[in-house]
C-alpha cells in the first residue's frame, strides 16, 4: 500500500459523520476530498494552503464531487491555523492531516518549512479531540526535506507519552516518504 493510501485508510477507520477534520496542506485537494466525504454533510473540513492555485484546485475538486458545502478553504499558512479556526472547535478535531513538501507539478520553491510545520503541529496537538489522530507525511528527497523530517520526528518524540501515542510508517527505500501517526489519549493528563 502506498503511503497516501495508508493515510486515507486511517481516515476511513477514524472519521464518522459529523466530525471535524483539518487538512494543513490542501494542495490539489485529494486529501480534502476524502476527508469531506467521510465527515458527511453534518461535518466540517478546514483546509489550508498558502497558494491561491492550490485553493482554487481544491475548490474545483470539491465542487465537482458536490462536497464544497461542508468545507472551509483558507488561503493562509497552517502556522496561523489557531487564529483562523472557530474557537469552539478547539479540542474537537478528530483527524488532522499534513502532506509536507511542495505541490507536485507546481512551484517547487513554495515548500513547507520546519518552523511553520512545527508551529502547526503544536497547534494540531492542542486542537485534536481525545482519541483523535494526526497524520504527517514528510519527504526526504528534496532540499530541506531530510531536515524537516527529522524535526517532525523530534517533535513527535517529545510529545508527552501519557497524552499521545505515536508510530511511524516507512519503507526501506532510501528517501521514501515517512508518515508519523499521533493519536491523542482518551484522557489527557495535565
Ligand atoms: C505535497 S503538497 C500537498 C498535497 C495535498 N495533500 C493533495 O492532496 O493534493 C504541499 C502543499 O503545502 C503547501 N504549503 C507550503 N507551506 C505551507 C504553509 N505554511 N501553510 C499551508 N500550506 C503550505 C504548498 O503550497 C503545497 O500545496
Q: Do you know the CATH topology? A: Rossmann fold
Please, what is the CATH homologous superfamily? Vaccinia Virus protein VP39
Task: Determine the N-to-C terminus distance.
Answer: 37 Å
The structural class is alpha/beta
Bound molecules: S-adenosylmethionine
Characterize the quaternary organization of these chains.
single chain
**Order of SSEs:** HEHEHEHEHEHEE
Please give the radius of gyration in angstroms.
15 Å
Overall spatial form: globular
The main β sheet shows up as:
7 strands, mixed
Provide key terms for this protein.
190 residues; alpha/beta; Rossmann fold; 7-stranded mixed β-sheet; 6 helices; 7 strands; 35% helix; 25% strand; globular; binds S-adenosylmethionine
Word description of this protein:
- This protein is an alpha/beta fold and 190 residues long.
- The chain has one domain: Rossmann fold (3-Layer(aba) Sandwich).
- Helices cover 35% and strands 25% of the residues.
- It is built from 6 helices and 7 strands, in the order αβαβαβαβαβαββ.
- It has a 7-stranded mixed sheet with strand order 3-2-1-4-5-7-6, sandwiched between helices.
- Helix 2 (30-39) links the parallel strand 1 (20-23) and strand 2.
- Helix 5 packs parallel to helix 6.
- It is globular and about 40 Å long.
- The N and C termini lie far apart (37 Å).
- The structure holds S-adenosylmethionine.
Write the layout of secondary structure elements.
Elements: H1 3-14, E1 20-23, H2 30-39, E2 44-49, H3 52-64, E3 71-75, H4 81-84, E4 93-99, H5 114-127, E5 128-138, H6 145-158, E6 164-170, E7 178-184
Parallel strand pairs: 1-2, 1-4, 2-3, 4-5
Antiparallel strand pairs: 5-7, 6-7
Bound molecules: S-adenosylmethionine (SAM).
